[in-house]
Write a structure and sequence with these properties.
By secondary structure, this protein is of the alpha+beta class. Helices cover about 25% and strands about 25% of the residues. It is globular, with a radius of gyration of 36 Å. The protein binds zinc ion.
Length: about 210
């Protein structure tokens, strides 16, 4: 039929969509040269767009997740400030070290008013089972050694001995801690250790 000469024929051949040339019968031309119904013409473009969008979304998600993980690690409190004064106490007296942290930092402050000879403090971390032994060696070490025996391997970390208005900071690797173990921190200044104590644990928390 003659009308067939003006009619478009859409063929799919080897993955490429072709259309019969309405002027020259029997010849085939690439689809892009002619009009095609929108649903047929745009199908490949939509697919390409979808793939591009999916790829982009995946990348954005990957970046977002990496940032989120970094933020969580950062938000995980890998540091704490302990306040002391003329009372024999640490505030707070319990520390949770997030296992996400690589290092943990303890800052000890002293806001009391008594002179250092009467009221100095330090912060000494050890296992609960080693508490008494560390308290003894710390006491014997004297103020010149910040009341910490440097040869005592039971001491995991410690600050300097500080007086009123002073601050001391210490960082230690979280890998030195074990989950399930109970740690204690104490002040080994003269006579403080029986009262001035706190506890520390390692836990899978972000805060
Ligand atoms: Zn003390």
């Amino acid at each position: 039929m003659e009308c067939c000469a003006f009619r478009a024929y859409i063929l799919a051949l080897n993955g490429e969509v072709l259309r019969a040339n309405p002027i020259k019968k029997g010849t085939m031309q690439p689809l892009s040269l002619y009009y095609l119904p929108s649903h047929t013409h745009r199908q490949p473009q939509r697919s390409t767009f979808k793939q591009t969008f999916s790829s982009l979304a995946a990348r954005v998600c990957a970046v977002f997740l990496s940032l989120l993980f970094a933020c969580v690690a950062q938000a995980a409190d890998c540091a704490i400030t302990l306040q002391t004064d003329d009372a024999l106490r640490f505030v707070p007296s319990h520390i949770v070290v997030p296992s996400l942290c690589k290092n943990f930092t303890v800052t000890l402050t002293h806001t009391g008013h008594l002179p250092p000879l009467a009221m100095s403090h330090n912060w000494v971390l050890t296992k609960k089972s080693d508490l008494d032994g560390v308290a003894r060696t710390g006491m014997a070490a004297g103020a010149g050694a910040h009341h910490v025996d440097q040869t005592d391997k039971r001491v995991i970390a410690h600050t300097k001995l500080i007086g009123t208005g002073e601050t001391s900071r210490v960082s230690f690797a979280v890998t030195t801690l074990t989950k399930g173990e109970t740690y204690v921190f104490l002040c080994t200044f003269a006579g403080h250790s029986p009262i001035m104590r706190g506890t520390l644990v390692l836990a899978d928390v972000s805060h």
